[in-house]
Design goal:
heterodimer; A: 256 residues; mainly alpha; 12 helices; B: 356 residues; alpha/beta; Rossmann fold; Alpha-Beta Plaits; 2 domains; four-stranded antiparallel beta sheet; ABC transporter (chain A); transmembrane helix (chain A); transmembrane (chain A)
Chain lengths: 256, 356
């Protein structure tokens, strides 16, 4: 069983269902549109900020503000890519065609990851440039120190969110269960844990909190986060690896 | 060729498949028969490496399924018509299967044509009727031009024309020297298509025999009698050493005697007969007798004895399993030697069927 055959097959699968287009499309549109909107508000509110807040003002990070919502569409993308197989019964046909379950899972994930990265990177660049154009005099330039890293990092962040969701969906199989856990986790729980001082120490190690550090260019004043941009992304990668390995082990052991 | 050796699958306490050993040979259609819940689908899933056996082994042409390179070229399977993504077109569904096994794209159009779905090839599968879904599943099985084909309940949901089509398809595939393994819970369907028969009940092998042998061994013949002087007739029959069974509706059934003899016996004693007819039990009935003790979901609950559950047809029924006649208390005779008797709990199940 050549892996290239399976990759080609998975590409056919992913491009031939409507959910791919609308989840990735929604992720891009929401991220860019919300980023532009928040950039515009930030520009208008800039003069009202305190001195400390002005020092921490991070135009790059602000243009990525839409990702908090856009990532939800990527979660749906990641979950559906995997759990569609289970909810439709296609998994039995798929595994009969490709009984090497590792080849099957990693080919599927490779195709979906590449697609998510392409969309994530384009989205990240568009969100950055549109956001900066709205920010006017407060804007950052792509040539500034750390900015290019943050913009590419935005694409990586979106990709990793999708891969994490694929891993979780492989473990849980059901789309409803996967979304029911991932959506509130990323939209509410993580934000709450990260902002309440009692749980902040723990919350900052959650995948999205740690991973989004890569999109930061200006470190906030009296920031006590114990990792840098790449360290944060590394923490997120660890979470993703745990989810993917967990999914692989369960897929390997379970009856289809 | 598919070889099963002691194949076993246990879900917790429940033995879904219990030590199955048989071989599916090329060039013929092998019917895989059993009541609902007998373990047919579980067995087929294990053949395809989807479920892991608790014990035992199954090999496809001598190899384990997951060791096959491009398995669709060895064995094509239709498991259920729903095993596909409804949002994908028929063409793309087959294309992704073909690509995963290095099957050329042109083959997709060929199999779509074979099953008659060319005109809806670009339509999404969720708009398909059950019969169309079944045809698409069969197209997927044929895709790799495999030597072995496996169909799980293929006629489900097909219209008469579709059923006719799939029967001929299976026969022609076998005639080409391929191995064809098809499951069903309908004996009548198998009688029309299968050359060889594997019968299971509650996961256990009940029969592994040629269709011709099965028919010969299981076609019970008996004589049906009806008389207004029933009590006298019973006495006379008893006196002549003939045992009759109450069959409901005032009729009596006699196994193993010729109708001529019974007619002459009645005439000798001046008994009026309203009916004297030789009967042949259907294969469906034989199948139900064979599997009666292993039917998982009875319409009526009742204590189910286990008269030689692993007895192949041909094993004499255990006498202890015989119940007493329902109305007059006439004891039932030892049945035809070739078919195991139904246990008491299932007799009503069988007679329900006869009325229907």
């Amino acid at each position: 069983m050549a892996a290239t055959q399976v990759v080609r097959s998975e590409w056919t699968k992913i491009r031939s269902v409507a959910s791919t287009v609308w989840t990735l499309g929604l992720a891009a549109v929401v991220t860019v549109a919300l980023g532009v909107l928040i950039s515009w508000f930030s520009k208008n509110e800039f003069d009202k900020l305190s001195d400390n807040e002005k020092l921490s003002f991070d135009p790059t990070f602000i243009s990525f503000a839409g990702m908090s919502l856009g990532q939800l569409a990527l979660i749906v993308f990641g979950v559906l890519v995997v759990s569609n197989e289970y909810s439709t019964g296609m998994i039995r046909t798929s595994l009969a065609a490709v009984p090497q379950r590792g080849t099957f899972l990693f080919s599927k994930m490779a195709v979906a990851t590449c697609l998510a990265f392409a969309v994530g990177l384009i989205t990240s660049f568009v969100a950055f440039f549109l956001g900066q154009s709205v920010l006017g005099v407060h804007k950052a330039s792509i040539g500034d120190s750390g900015v290019l890293r943050a913009v590419i990092g935005g694409g990586l962040y979106m990709t990793l969110i999708a891969v994490f969701s694929m891993g979780v969906a492989t473990m849980l199989r059901s789309p409803m269960l996967s979304l029911g856990i991932l959506m509130p986790f990323f939209f509410l729980i993580s934000a709450i844990l990260g902002n309440v001082s009692a749980t902040k120490k723990f919350g900052q190690f959650l995948p999205d909190q740690a991973g989004s550090k890569i999109m930061q260019v200006v470190t906030p004043v009296d920031d006590d986060v114990p990792y840098g941009p790449w360290g944060g992304l590394g923490i997120m990668v660890l979470w993703v690896l745990v989810a993917v390995v967990g999914g692989y082990v369960l897929l390997k052991r379970r009856d289809a | 060729m598919i070889e099963l050796e002691g194949l076993t699958k246990r879900y917790g306490e429940k033995m879904a498949v219990n030590h199955l050993t048989f071989t599916v040979r090329p060039g013929i259609v092998t019917g895989f028969l059993g009541p609902n819940g007998a373990g047919k689908s579980t067995t087929m899933r294990m053949m395809l490496g989807l479920d892991r056996p608790t014990a035992g082994d199954v090999r496809i042409d001598g190899q384990h399924y997951d060791r096959l390179k491009d398995p669709l070229r060895y064995i094509g399977a239709l498991l259920d018509a729903k095993a596909m993504h409804g949002g994908r077109s028929a063409f793309n569904h087959l294309l992704c299967l073909a690509q995963s096994n290095g099957i050329p794209r042109g083959r997709v159009d060929e199999v779509l044509d074979t099953v008659g779905l060319t005109s809806v090839a670009r339509k999404k599968a969720k708009g398909f009727s059950l019969g169309m879904g079944q045809r698409l599943g069969i197209a997927g099985a044929l895709l790799g031009d495999p030597r072995i084909l496996m169909f799980d309940e293929p006629v489900n949901g097909l219209d008469p024309e579709g059923i006719h089509w799939i029967r001929n398809l299976m026969k022609s595939l076998a005639a080409q020297g391929r191995t064809v393994f098809v499951s069903s819970h309908l004996m009548s369907e198998m009688a029309l298509t299968a050359d060889h028969l594997v019968v299971i009940g509650q996961g256990r092998l009940l029969a592994d025999t040629s269709m011709a042998d099965f028919i010969r061994q299981n076609s019970r013949s008996y004589v049906r009698l009806r008389s207004p002087q029933r009590e006298r007739l019973l006495d006379v029959l008893h006196g002549a050493g003939v045992t009759a069974v109450e069959a409901g509706g005032g009729t009596l059934e006699v196994d193993g005697s010729k109708s001529e003899y019974l007619g002459e016996l009645a005439a000798e004693h001046g008994i009026v007969l309203h009916e004297l007819s030789p009967q042949q039990a259907s294969l469906e009935e034989a199948f139900m007798q064979l599997t009666a003790e292993s039917v998982e979901y009875h319409a009526h609950s009742g204590t189910v004895d286990d008269p030689g559950a692993d007895g192949a047809p041909g094993a004499p029924g255990a006498p202890g399993a015989w119940g007493t006649g329902p109305a007059e208390g006439a004891s039932r005779p030892p049945g035809p030697p070739q078919s195991p008797p139904p246990p008491p709990g299932s007799s009503s199940w069988g007679s329900d069927w006869k009325k229907g």
